[in-house]
Amino acid sequence: MFHSLDSVPSGRYTVFMKQKDISLSTKENILNAANKVILDKGADSLTLEAVAQEAGISKGGLLYHFPSKKQLIQGMIESMIARVDSTLHEELVKSSGDYMSSYIRASFKTETGPDQISYALFAAISNDPALIKPLQARFLKMQNEIVAAAASEEVGTIIRLALDGMWISDLFGFAPPSPELRVKMLDALLKIAQKPYGQDL
Q1: What's the Cα-to-Cα distance from 131 to each of 26, 76, 123, 136, rounded to whole Å?
Q2: CA-CA distance, 24 to 57, in Å (whole number)?
């Protein structure tokens, strides 16, 4: 039976929801701690003990949420993908479903940034490269979505690789563009995405 909108949930239900919120908050805290361990000490220093200490919980508390280091890294990858997808979804809502402009704008958002992605990647590559398979699958899905939405496969792929290149330049400090230049780049890419294929850029 469904509750009416003005009904009051039972005490047991309320306690359950509070416990669920606490559990999600603890998991997020653990993932943030894992990111910070890698930022401060490098991917090789990522251990369950170090993450538990950084998160301010016992190792047993960490193991309750992530029973192994592999599952912790998987959690980092999944969290990163979820953030990227959430940012893209927000832009799709704003643009009434214009995929290309949404993808470009989402890629320029600092909330997504390279940091969390890099931490998850570094942790995976230094421990078990197979752990990046979900990320590879997400990039392939994104490539297919871009090709379907772009004026042509080559234009869509050029835009995606340009944005990937910007991320890499930010990540490694390879002459990253200034804030002023980024504004101009965003405008240029949006114009390129909107032009019919074959029209002079």
Answers
A1: 23, 10, 9, 10
A2: 14
Q: What is the rounded distance in angstroms from the CA atom of residue 57 to the CA atom of residue 43?
A: 20
Lookup: tokens for 151: 């004026």
What distance in Å separates the CA atoms of residue 119 and residue 127, rounded to the nearest whole number? 12
Do the Cβ atoms of 102 and 88 come closer than 8 Å?
A: yes
The tokens describing 115, both together, are 């940091």
Flag whether the pTM goes above 0.85.
no
Cα–Cα nearest to 88, from 71, 104, 68: 104
53-89: per-residue pLDDT in tens? Answer: 999 999 999 999 999 999 999 998 888 888 889 999 9
Record the tokens describing residue 5, joined without a space. Answer: 């909108």
